[in-house]
Structure formats: structure tokens, C-alpha cells
Amino acid sequence: MVKRKLNPVQVSLDEVASTSLKAHTTKASSKSEKLKPKAVIPSQAKNGKEQKEILKEVKSSAPRRSTRKANMKKVDEEPMDEHSKDEKSDEQSEDDSVLGTEEDEDAEVDGDSDETSEDEEEASDEEDDDDSKSDSDSDAEKSSEVDDEGIENDNPFEFSDMNEAISQKVEAPHPNPVNGNEYEEDSSDEEDIRNTVGNVPLNWYDEYPHIGYDLDGRKLIRPKQEDKLDEFLRRMEDPNFWRTVKDLQTGQNVVLSDKDLEFVKRIQSGKIPDANFENFAPWIDWFSSDVLDTPLRSMPPSKTSFLPSKIDKMKISKMVHAIKMGWMKPKPKPSTEPNFYMLWDSDDKSDEMRRVHDHIPAPKVRLPNNAESYNPPAEYLFDEKEMKDWESKDDEPWKRRYNFIPQKYKSLREVPAYDNYTKERFQRCLDLYICPRAKKMRLTIKAEDLVPQLPNPKDLQPFPTICSMIFKGHSQMVRSITLEPHGQFFASGSEDGTVKVWEIATGRCMKTFEFGCVIRWVEWCPNKSLSLLAVAADSDVMLINPGVGDKLIIEKTDLLLSETLDQGDYHPSERLKGAVQWEPVDEEKWAKGIRILIRHFKNVNQVTWHAKGDYFASVMTDGQNRSVLIHQLSSRRSQLPLNKSKGLIQCVLFHPIRPIFFIATQRHVRVYDLLKQEMIKKLISGAKWISSMSIHPGGDNVIVGTYDKKVMWFDLDLSTKPYQTLRFHGNAVRSVAFHKRYPLFASGSDDCNLIISHGMVYNDLLQNPLIVPVKKLRGHDKFSDFGILSIMFHNMQPWVFSSGADKTIRLYT
Amino acid sequence: MGKMKKKYESGESTQFMTRKQALRKLQLSLKMFRKLCILKGIYPREPKNRKKAQRGATDKKTLYLKKDVQFLLHEPIVWKLREHKVYLRKKGRAKALRDKVALKRVVDNKPMYKLDHIVKERYPTFIDAIRDLDDCLTLSFLFSTFPSLRFVPGSMSRLCRRLTVEFLHYVIESRALRKVFVSIKGYYYQAEIKGQTVTWIVPHNFGFQPQSPDEVDFRIMATFVEFYTTVLGFTNFRLFHSLNICYPPKLLTLRGSEELNATNQLHWDNEDDLVSERVAALNQSLLRSSDAPVEEQVPEMDEFPVTEDASKMEEMKREAERVKRLKNLFGGLKFFLSREVPRESLCFMIRAVGGQVSWDGNLFPGATFDESDDSITHQITDRNLDDKQHVSRYYIQPQWVFDCINARGLLPVDKYFPGAVLPPHLSPFQTEREGDYMPPEKRKFVDMEKGIVAPENAFEFDNEGAEGEQEEEEEDGDEDDMEEEEEDEEDENASDEDELLDEDERTIKELKKQMKVTKGEAEIVDELRKRDDETKEQWRLRTMMIKNKHKRLYRKMMDSRRKRRREADRLASKRLQIEESTSKKSKKTKTKSKVK
Prior knowledge:
The complex is a heterodimer of chains A (813) and B (596).
Chain A: H1 2-23, H2 30-34, H3 37-46, H4 48-61, H5 63-80, H6 90-110, H7 113-149, H8 156-171, E1 210-213, E2 219-221, H9 228-237, E3 244-247, E4 252-255, H10 258-268, H11 310-325, H12 384-392, H13 421-434, H14 447-450, E5 467-472, E6 478-483, E7 489-494, E8 498-503, E9 509-514, E10 519-524, E11 533-537, E12 540-544, H15 551-562, H16 574-579, E13 580-583, H17 587-592, E14 594-600, E15 606-609, E16 615-619, E17 628-632, E18 637-639, E19 651-654, E20 660-664, E21 668-673, E22 678-684, E23 690-695, E24 701-706, E25 711-715, E26 724-726, E27 733-738, E28 744-749, E29 753-760, E30 770-778, E31 788-793, E32 800-804, E33 808-812
Antiparallel strand pairs in A: 1-2, 3-4, 5-33, 6-7, 7-8, 8-9, 10-11, 11-12, 12-14, 13-14, 15-16, 16-17, 17-18, 19-20, 20-21, 21-22, 23-24, 24-25, 25-26, 27-28, 28-29, 29-30, 31-32, 32-33
Helix pairs in contact in A: 1-3, 1-5, 1-6, 1-10, 4-5, 7-8
Chain B: E1 16-18, H1 19-26, H2 30-40, H3 50-53, E2 63-65, H4 66-73, H5 76-97, H6 100-108, H7 116-122, H8 126-131, H9 133-143, H10 154-174, E3 177-182, E4 186-193, E5 196-203, H11 218-242, H12 257-264, H13 271-280, H14 310-327, E6 334-337, H15 343-352, E7 356-359, E8 378-380, E9 394-396, H16 399-407, H17 440-450, H18 467-500, H19 506-517, H20 522-544, H21 548-595
Parallel strand pairs in B: 6-7, 6-8, 8-9
Antiparallel strand pairs in B: 1-2, 3-4, 4-5
Helix pairs in contact in B: 2-11, 5-6, 9-10, 9-11, 10-11, 10-15, 18-21
């Protein structure tokens, strides 16, 4: 806004100056010559800011003048816009023309202006007086006109005052510039000669006799238009004409004073209008960060600050009254002290209340033991070893015996503070709210209650209890032992390549047969009318006549076996032929006792007789699908019962009564019906490796010993799974055996223990067998991780024989 | 055909909620949830089948019962906690803006909550509250020693102090104290209140030790204490009223403060302070609200039905008698505490078993008589005596008081003289099962109680207090020692043998002992041993037949038994070693003295 206002002023001033300068070139001094309109306009464009400052100065020094200037500009503006504005009022165009003529006339006048200037000045003095008179007259006329126009004013005085004011106003534009300061005559009343219409185009008032309103709202009557002639006359006569400008808003002519001119000149030359303004004065930083001793502005405090506030006083008095009347009370402070009262009505009766579902109370803290005492018995204190143990468990403190180091103090006075006290309490807090809780059933049974109640072994007698005889003679571990069917002798086969026949009653070694290879198995023929002993030596199975016992039987046996049978058109298959061959026995071997020799294609592990004594089976573990062979003594023929390999076959067994054949593979026991030639069932042991098996004389129960320490009792009628698994032994079970008469069975193991158990089988099918271990027999020594290798019962007596890796055979009675 | 069942829609999987789910359900932050759980006594549960409860997830999660969470949902304190959150926010804002007016307004309107209903909820009966008093007392006693900390305002520790002192007063007045124990961690006390045993620990009297924040979170403990103080307050109230004592407690003889000051030679500005200090001194009876006799739990014996086992009855009767004796153990005795002994614990114990006690009035208010009082029978001191001694009293170390209470009888004072090597202080809480190690001191005492050893040597009920008698006692003590040693040896022999034998053969062994009395020949012993071996083997054979299902359990049980036995053996052998070395030393010294 400011700028918009200012620029026109500037322009008007320029205009004025230029016109005046042109008019007074002669009169103007060197100073006036410098004033060139060219220089002004760029300066305006350059520093608008400066211009602002300048105008401020102007305004502050002469507020009235600024208004005048503002008015003036309106007049002077128009010539600038001349070309653009076509729709100008006639008057204005006239003005323009007048101005234009003025300029022309100026130019004409220029030539003699020097001469006339002094005269004009002199004349103007005189004329001023006249003018004033005439003006006042005209004013009076104007006022009357105003009245005529119908503006009713009640107060004639005011009106006259107004008239005076107007007259003064009219006068004001004609102060004598020579006299100096035009403001000397100024009064405060005079200031109000201004138009209050605001910043509106003045041509709005063209139709009216007035051009606006003064401060009091009275109309400002448009001054009388002077015609060209008057103007010309004035130009000619008035020496101040060049410095007279017309205030458009008031319609007055204003004569610029010297000071104004000075301003104009300075502005034109792009200087600060106030000549006294010191542009480069030293800067005083009034509002610095330094705190001054005295205030920068010492404004006196207001009076109200000394006086008590009345409103406050009223408020206070109201409050005082309210307090007096007891209407207003201080807010009670909430008591921080807890308030306790009788929460429970009785000790053990509870109200119906919601509770935690299925509450599990936290277990109480464990109470201290003697070690925690400040003065414990000396044995509770840590010795060096225990201290080391404590220190080694720094990473896993829960493994320590106590969570503190026991200490002993001589007196109570010396007991220090316990460092972990707060920490332990905190741990307890954590336990209470983080630790998951569960109800746990506590076992109240004693360990003893877990042990089954069994009949006293004393009631289950007889069973072998004591080692009554040790048979020594072998120089290597005794692999196998077997009893003569009469129960008088027994034979043993050892790794030293000998088979020895012993008399039980005397303990004598009756005979020794040397074979020069490892004897894996010996088995006496169960037929009492034959004296035959089957020996498995490497890949041979030999039937020997030991030549002990009844001579008749011996001779009869020899006689029987010396006959050579006519095989007729028997042609064994190639498969069988490759596996086994019955070889004729020569004289030398006959003299050794060998009666029949059967050669196998692999090492024979086991030989077992059928109960009748005619058939016997041999096992070659490596024989694959030909690992089991059944031989018939009477016909001297062999059969291959299996067509396919069933795995590593460990041992085989004939059923004592029925034509059933048991084959123990590594994990299972396969039961075959020999007549139907099919598998009846498969006993699943669940063990890793079966070592041996034995069958109850009744034929319905089988025990199986395994290398993984177990002895399994199978009830064939019950299930294919073991009826009971007995873990008696601490090491591999090598041999198991049933007694033929007594309800006893035994198991021998590599841990050198021979365990005799009572195994009662009832005739009642509903009753399960009763198994009670009755005796643990020790005696054999361990020899390169082998203990007992073979066991057997006496057929009549409750005696048990065991052969061990320590080269001995023991008899327990 | 029925509808097909979906997985995890019934059974255990619907009963549990993980903590995260609980937080979502309750719309609480973890901190607030924690606080709520502590206050309400909600804890995670261990499910029977974790995989099912976690709906197939195999990692370990904290599981809460769904019903518990629902229970929390209805708790009014949840809202208070939320309000508290808002309060904190407002307070922080006012503080940040330095708006003091707003700050004051906010602080004045701080949301408060009460835990009364929770106490009632968690402990529906008074007995329940007493049963759960252990942790409450222990933590309150600890907090009563705390200065004002960041999360423990001073008011909290003051309240703890007040409540614990009140509780001690109740124990004194009701003579409920049963067992005491000085541990390296602190003093253990056990009292019997309304038929419930309450055990608490008081730390040794030392200043606060700063704790590292990684190890101890005082915020959690403070939350516990917040609840515990409420419980303890209500419990005290009811306990005091059951004895007709005013609550809050007042001193029985409320004399003018001037007089009090005069006797104590200490000046107290505030009378309230004075009274509370005096209450804390535990040395005066409290004002009773009425003189009506308090319903006491007396003649219990007659009420028992006769059908019970006779020996059990006998045992109970004896126990009751012992307790009765304990209640007035120090009746008529006057104790004076020197300044170096723990005043509060000793005063509490002595008064709880009927003694009178006092101390140096300059030290602490509440002293009732002076050191120069001739009627003092015992002076408890923990220092070597100076020349100034009173002839008419025993000077003893504080352990005597503890041991007397545990023994429920007055022990001879000779072993407890100042400067004497104290007999070991044994835990009264340790109950030895069969086969556990029992220190010889305790074995002797147990035998005495059973009546095996005549109690004349042990108990000394008169206090004529002459030096001559003391000497006699000393001699007696020597004899005791000798006896003890012999006994010990026997014990050890016995225990050595025990190692070899199984427990169920003890009876036979005893039989054997009896047999030993008559002169037997070697054959007979062999016979016995044979039988022994037989039975043993029989047993072993039987154990072989344990079902596979039980074998593991049996082995575990036997292992633990073996472990216990080994532990007992270890201690016994250690003891033997120590005694041997000490006896050697003593012999050496004796010979030296003879040479001299």
C-alpha cells in the first residue's frame, strides 16, 4: 500500500519539479541545474526502500503536507497516464491541455524569467493581501451557496467557524514563501482541512458541488474553477506559481515551501530527504545481551501497581465470609496410612467369594539345616576338596549341595551380613509369581513295596545250592557238556580238541577222545539202548561210542553201526550232496571210537538229538539256506528242511513229544511242524541276538537266552511274545536249560553267575507259570570276557553242571 | 455318524492361555499385568501335556489358566491401574511444562487403590492368611530395614517396621514362639499361631547393601510388599483383638512423657515418636482393651478321643507338656543385655518365653531396670569380661538363649561363659530320617529326651548361682565330654556297620547285639551270618523279579537312599577325623603340661 501511495507522489513531485525547473532555468542556480528528471526515475526503481524512509521523514515532519502531496499527485498523475487513458473526463482533458499549454508557456516565458523574477516577488507581497481579501469574499459566497443547497445546520456559530476554517484553508495555500515557515501560522484547528472520502477516484464527485467531506462531516465545496485566463494571469503575476501545486482532494492550491523544495530536490537526486540525517552514524547496540545496571527504558510503574486491587479485595472478602460461615472448608488430605479393620469374622469360616480357580498354594521355603548355622558342628564345614568342588560349580550353582558356604564364627558378634540375602528374597518373589505350579502326586510307597512278594525259596526246594565238585582236566575252555541218558556219566567238549567222558559219582575222567580241532558241541544220544555221543568238531559231526556204562549196550551199538546199509536207489540231490556227506569210517577212526562221520560243508555249531534218538540235527550258522540239516541214524540219510535262508540260525531244538522243530534265528524263534512241513508260529523275542534255547519237558514252554542279558520265557499256548522277560544277568546269557523232572531252569552267563530259578508249569491252563529265582551260584572265573559257556541239569537229581571258560566243569548239588 | 472332532477345540488345549494372549485379552502392558498377577496371586500353571496345551507348539510358553485370566478381567484394580497410567502421563506432562498448578492438581488427585478385597479373596479364612504368612513376614522384616529407595518409598519401610513390630508383640503376648535359629543368613523364628507354624527370617542387623539392578528388581519386591503389608495389617488387627489388645498398640502404663524421658535419659521431641519407639523396644506389655480373660487354647489333652494309639497319645501329651514348659521357660529370670548383643532379637525371644529383660538406657529407650540391679540373674554378653562383675548373676553368651529355647529347658550355663568355646548351634528345623547323619550333640539330646540318659546332668533348674557349683558343673561337663566321646565311638562303630547292612536288617542286627551279651561261639555267629546272607540273597533274588515298569523307580529310590547314606557316612567319617586330630592335640598339650 505504501509503495502504491508513494510512487505517484514521487512522480508528481518530479513532474512539478520538472515543470518548475523548466520555468526557472534562468533563475535556478547551479543547484537547480543538477535536478534532472532523468536521474530521478532510475533511482526510484533502484531503491524503493530508501524512498520509503524518505517519505516517512516527510510525513513525520509535515503530516499536513503529505496529505497535500497526496492530493497533488492526483492532479499530476494524469499527464503520465495520458496516453493510456482515453475515457477521461472533459475537465481533465482540459486540465491536460492547460498543463500542456502551461509547459508551452513556460518554455516561452523561460527566456525572460530572469528579469522578472525579482519583480514578481515584490509584487506577490502586495497581491497576497488582495487575494486573501477576495478569497474571503468568495468564501462567504460559497457558504451561502452551501446553505442554499439545503444543508441545514442548527448551529450558525459552528457554521461560521467552519467558514472561517475554510477560509483559512483557502488562505493556507498562499503563505508567503518568502516569509519562511508556513507552519508558523498554523493552529491545531487548521489541520483538519482534509478530505475524508478516502482513497476513491475523485471523479465520483464530479457531478456534485462538493468534492468530499471534512473531519466534521461537512461538505467540502469544490473551489471555483479558474479559467485559463486566470491561470495565465496568475502565472504572469504570481512569482510563486512555479512552486504552486493543486491539491485535488481539497481543490486548493498549495505553494511548496523552500524546505519542501529541498526535500524534492534531494529525493530527485536519490538522497535521503532529510539533510540532517546522518547516514553513517556509529551503531549503538541498545538491545544487546549485556544486562545493564540501569534499565534501558525507565518507564515508571503504573499507578495501579501501587494500589490494592479492588476486585481481588471483593473476592477475598467473599471467601473470608464463606470460611466464617463454614461454607468453605479445606479439602481433606487423603490419609496415606492404611486403615485396618476386622476383615475376617471368624478364624475358619469363609464367605462366598470368587477365588482363583483350583488354587495351588506355593510350597514353603525349605527350612535351614545344621550347615547353615553360624556355629555348626565342624563336620559341616567344607574341607579343601569340597571347597574345590564348590568353586568348580560356579557355572552351575544349582548342582551345589548348599547355596552358601558353611561358616563357623566364634561368637555371635562376629557374624557378618549375608550378601545374598536380598537376592534370595527376590528369587523367592520370582518363584511365587513366575514359576508354573502343578499338583504332583507324591509317592508314599517305600522301595520295599515295589519288590514282589514271592514264595520263600526254602519252600521250593530241592534245588542246587552248593558247588560240590569241580572237574578239571581240559586245557582250554569247555564249550559244551552233555549227560549220559542213564545219568551216570557226562561228556565235555573243549576247545583243546578233546572230548572227555567223566563219571559223576567219582569225578573221574573215564575217557578222553582227541580230535585235534575245536569241539563246538557234544550231545549224548537220548536213546538209552544206544551208547552214542554226537560230537561237532569243525565241519564234521562224529558219532562216537564212548565205551562207558553197560557193556551190552556198547557192543550192541557197535554191532548196529558196523552194518553197512544198502542205500538202494537213494540219490541225494545235488544241493544236499554239496552240503553233507556220510563218510565211511576206516579202521583207525573206528579204533578211536568214531562210528559214523558226517562231513559238512561249513563248521558245525550245534548238534541236537531228537528224543527218540534216531534223528539228529546239525546247525551251520554260515550255511545260509543249507544251515540246518536233519540226519536219520537208522537210514544214514540227511535232509534239508529249509529251502530259503532265514537269517543266521543260532540253534535248533526238537520238541520232546510232538514232531515240532524249533529254529532260533538271530531274533526270532520259528516253530515248524515237521509232518506238515510248515511254520506254525514265530516267537518274537524282541531281543537283539538269541544265544540258546531250551524247552520244558512238557513241551509248551520255551526259554530263550540272549546275548543282551535277557532270559525270556515263552508260553507257547499264551502268545508269541515272551510271557516274562528276566533280566537276571549282568552280561550275555550263553546257555539256558530246563530240568527234566523238577520245576527248575537255569541260565548261565558271561558274568559267571549261574542262576537257578523255580519255573513251575501248572497243568491248569488258566494258571500262568510261576517263576521264582531261587539261587545264584557263583564259582567260575572269568576268562577273556567269557564266563559260563554251557550248563545242563542232571536228569534225575536236582543237580546242575556248568562248564566255563576257566577250563573247569562244576557240579552244584 | 457324529460330527468330526477338530483338533484343539476341547480338553486341555482350551484351558490354557499364553501370557501374550492374556495381555491381549486384558489390554494391559506387561508391567501392569505383572503387578496384577502379584497382587491377585495368579501364577502360571504347568499343564499335564504341554504340547496339547500349547496347541501343538513345542517351545516352552508361560501358560495361565483361562479361568484365572477371566478372573483378572473382573478385577476393579485393573481400571485403577489404567488410571494410574493416565496419571503418570498427566504428571509427566505437567512436569515438562513446569505447570506447577497443574502438577499439584494432578498429584493431589492421584488414583489410589485398596487391596482389602483382594486379601479377603485370596485368604477366605483367617487361617489361610496365617498359613501364608511366612513369605509375608520375611519380606516385611527385610523391607523394614530399607532406607527410602527409588521404588521403595520411606513410608513403605516405615509401615513394614510398624507392622512387624506389632507382630512381634503379638508373639510375645501370646507366647507363641517355638523355635529359633541363628543362621549365617539371619535369625530364623518359628511360632505357632492358631495351630499353624509360621516361620520367618530376620536378617542380621546391618545397613542396607546396594543391589545390582540385574540381580534384584525392587519394583517387583515392592509390589509384593504392598500386598503383604495389607495382609499383615489385617492379620495383626485380628490377632491383637483375639488377645483383647488395643490396635494400634499402646503401652500398658502410659506415663507422662517427662517421666519417660527422665528414666531413659533420652529426649524425644515428639510424643508419638516416643511411644512408637517404646513399642519398638518390645519391652513393655501393651494396653488391653478389656480385662476379660483371653480365650486360651488350654486343656487340649482331655479332648482327645481315647481311641487313638496309646503311644501316639503319650507322645502328644509329652509334646504338649514341653510346649507348656517352653511358654514360661524364663519365668522369674531377669536378663540384662550388654550393648554388643543383638538387642531386638534377644529381647523378643526372652520376653516370648516369659523372661524379663533390660539394657543400657542410653542405648535405646525402653530399658526397665539398670545394670546394677541385684535381681538380675543372667547378663548376656558377647565379650570377654572385664573386672567389674556382679557375683549374683551368670555371664553368658547369647547362644545360650537360642539353645535353651530349642531344647525347651534351661541348659547348663558353663559351656556358654564369655570367651568359652561354644558348643555347636544346631538347627531345630532339621529332622533326621532313619539313616541320616545326626551330629553326636543332637543324638545325645534326643536320647535324653527319650529318657535313655538321665536328664540330671543336662538340666539345671535352680539358679542358686555359686562359683563352687559352677566348678562342679564344669567337672560334670568334663565327664559329659568323656561320655560323649565314648558314645561317639560307639555310634561310629555302629554306623560303620550300618554301611554294610541294609536297613531292613537292622532289627536282626539289634537282635545280634542282644545276642552279643551272652557269650557266643564263633559257630553261632557264622550261623547268623549265614542266615543273614541267605536273607540278603533272597532279597536280591526278589529284587530281580521287580516288574520292568517299577525297576527304574526302585532303582531311583534306592539310589537316593544310597546317596543319603553316603552323605551321612561322609559327615560321620569327617567328624571322626576331626575328633581324632583334636584328641591328639589335647593329648599333646596334656603331656606338655605334665612335663612342665
